[in-house]
Structure formats: structure tokens, C-alpha cells
Amino acid sequence: MKFWSKVTLAFASVALLSLSGVRLSGQAPAQGKAATQGKAQGKAETPAKAAAKAGGPAKVTAGEFFKNVTTPTLKDLTPDDFILAMGLVADNLGLDCADCHPGAGSDKVDWVIDTPQKKTARKMIEMVGTINKTNFAGVQMVTCWTCHHGRDRPATTIALDAVYSTPNSERDDLVTAVPGQSAAAILDKYIAALGGAQRLAGITSFIATGKSVGYEGLGGTGEFNIYAKSPNMKTTEISFKDHPDRGKSIWAFNGRTGWITTPRGLLGEYEVTGTGLDGVRFDAQMAFPGQIKTLFTNWRVGQMETLGDRDFNVIQGGTARGLLVTLYFDTKTNLLSRMIVYTSSPIGRAPQQVDFDDYRDVGGVKFPFKDTFLWLDGRWTAEISSIKTNVAIDAAKFGKP
Predict the structure, then answer these.
(1) Cβ–Cβ < 8 Å for 236, 253
(2) For 86-103, b where at least 16 C-beta lie within 10 A, e where not — what string?
(3) Could you tell me the residue range of the domain that residue 119 belongs to?
(4) Could you give the CA distance from residue 113 to residue 375 in angstroms, rounded to a whole number?
């Protein structure tokens, strides 16, 4: 995997991780003109953009925003969902931006030019869609990953070492319900482990501060502030005091709408939509976990799993629009250790993972002070240094940046 142009994609992939506001603090140093050129190659002023400037919803499609997006499966996506799909293609085939877009990661990138790889990718995307429509009534049973598994060209013959070695450990996205504990029982233990329902209900707001460590060696360490207000408002602001030229990245959700501002990203500022909005809402609600049992009506318990040397109870829930959330609770502590959120895409689900660690007591309630984020284009760690609870926060803090 070529890191530099993957970083360029990560700048644009701000919608990939809707589960927490502090996930893109690992932005790398300036990529020359790459980011600005990518935006310049979008169409400068569509009716949708004009409406957005006037305060209306931004309904711009990828086909309008970018030049030369012709694939029927992708051109009607929002720009952020289109970037998400690009991340899936890159990771499923073990590629990066530069394999299809000459010069990606440099100041000479050409996003528009057609290359043989890009033409082939278009055909394959439509082929996958046709297979699912023809054979599975449109249900997404086949994706790029089904055949490629991180290879440019799918393997056609099994390696005998694979037959007699460790069994395939890949997990299904969908958790199959098993008899035993109920989801409610597992969640009750989690609430008790955090400090109990009464103490959790007593926290109506908090402000967390800390540093984010990402893209080691590329100057990716920044400072963040998280503002949260019960039951479902949350904003994260990230800045780099040693690099003020990077601007401030902001993720805001006011209980109804979500906005993302990344000055160095391809998309700049935009409203979050679709399953991305569902993910932002879930993230804001999980800031106040006492309400977790009510967040989904379809919680189900899966088979207990072992990660490393620890056992975990696994439950999963989701929304009608296709958001899936899988939670892993340590069987010894009953605390949440891992969360995987899957957002939907026409070419496959996009996973985003957070590992929670270093739980500490704050006023009788446990908070994780170390969160490790993994997504399609990178990973980084958020280290919280301070949490202040029940503080006054202006409602405007959660609005459009």
C-alpha cells in the first residue's frame, strides 16, 4: 500500500468515520496543490451549491461536483459517499489513488484523465451491480472484496498452504443471533460497569480535551476539544497550534443535522447525509451511554468471540437505511472495548472501528481516555487529558460551523 497517496484520499474521506468527531486529526502536512487541484476539478458552481450558499440543503451529486464521473452506480451519490466508494475500491484491491489517478499525492495530480485502470474499474463496478440484481434480487451479496481480497487481480487457484493452515478468521458483517443472554442483559451490565443508570443520567453535558496522534512522522499530532450535550448533540474541533495554516477541522451535530468542515479536504464544508448522518447521530447519542438500550429496536446477540486473550459478548443493531453497529463487551469488566460501524455504499459496506481503553473514573462514571480509530485509509489514537462534566455549552456550538 502506497502511503502518500492514501493520505490524500484520507483528506477527502471525512465521511468515512461518522462514529466519532476526532477521527481525522491525523491530517498530514500540505500536499502541495493536490488538494486544491482536486477541488478545482469539481464544477465550480452548481444550482445545488448556490442553494447551499443561500442556506438551503446541499443536494449536489458526485456527477455534478467532480468532472468525468460517468459510472451510473456512482454518479448520483453525494460527493462524500463517492469518496467513500473510492476508499473501498482502493482497499479491496490493495491499491491507492495513484494507481488510477496519475500524480495523486503530488502537486501534479490529474483526477480527470481516463486511464486503463479507471476504465476497468468502471466496468467491474457495473458488473458487480448486475450480478447482485440478476442473482440476488438486488441484495448486496457480491462486492469487490468477494473476489479480490486485497489483490489487483483475483486469485483463481487455492494455495494448498491455506487448506492446511489456520482457518479463515474473516467475520461476517451481519451477526447471527444465538440463544443465551439477551442484548438487554449485556447492556444492563455495561451501564452498571460505567457507574449505573442514575449516575449516567446525572451527566447532561461534558467537554473533553486532549491530543490526537496519527500519521507518525508526518506531523499528525493535534489538539482537540469535544463538546457534548444530552441527549444527542456533539461537536469536535481539532487544531494544530504548530501549524495554524492547516485551519480548524470541525464535526458538528445538533440533534437533527450534521456538518463537517475540513479546510484541507477536497470537500471543504458539507452537510452529512444518509447512513453517514445515522452514524453521526449514533456517535452523539453514545456520548451519553445510559440511553444505549433505546438507540436501536433490533439489538441481537451474536456468538461470543475471542480477540487476543480476552472473551467478548457481541451484539449488533442497525437502522432502516443500512447503518450497522457491532459492539464488543469484555466479559470480565462488562465495558465496551470495540465498536465497528458499517456505513452503506453501492459497492460494499465501509467499516470503521474504534477500540476503547484506559477507562477512568470521572465523578463516579467511567470514561475511556484512550480511543484508537481505524478506517479505510489510516488509523490514529485519541488521548484524552481532561473531562469536565455538567458545564454550560452554548447551543450554537452544535450548529453549522
Answers:
(1) no
(2) bbbbbbbbebbbbbbbeb
(3) 3-163
(4) 28
**Secondary structure element (H or E) that encloses residue 145, with its range:** helix 144-148
The β-bridge partners of 238 are: 224, 249
Q: In whole angstroms, give the CA distance from residue 48 to residue 64.
A: 9
Give me the amino acid identity at 110. Answer: D
Q: Is 139 exposed, middle or buried, given 0-12, 13-18 or 19+ CB atoms closer than 10 A? A: exposed
Instruction: List pLDDT tens digits, range 43-65.
Output: 434 434 444 454 444 578 889 98
Check residue 40 and give its pLDDT.
Answer: 35
| Contact yes or no for 80/73 (Cβ under 8 A) | no
**Is 169 contained in some domain?**
no
Kindly state whether residues 200 and 126 are assigned to the same domain: no
Q: Do 339 and 243 share a domain, yes or no?
A: yes
Per-residue DSSP letter, 136: S
Whether residues 188 and 159 fall in one domain:
no
* pTM exceeding 0.70: yes
Distance in angstroms (rounded) separating the CA atoms of residues 288 and 37: 41
Q: How many domains does the chain fold into?
A: 2
Q: Supply the CATH number for residue 48's domain.
A: 1.10.468
Kindly report, residue by residue over 189-223, the tens digit of the pLDDT.
999 999 999 999 999 999 999 998 865 444 567 88
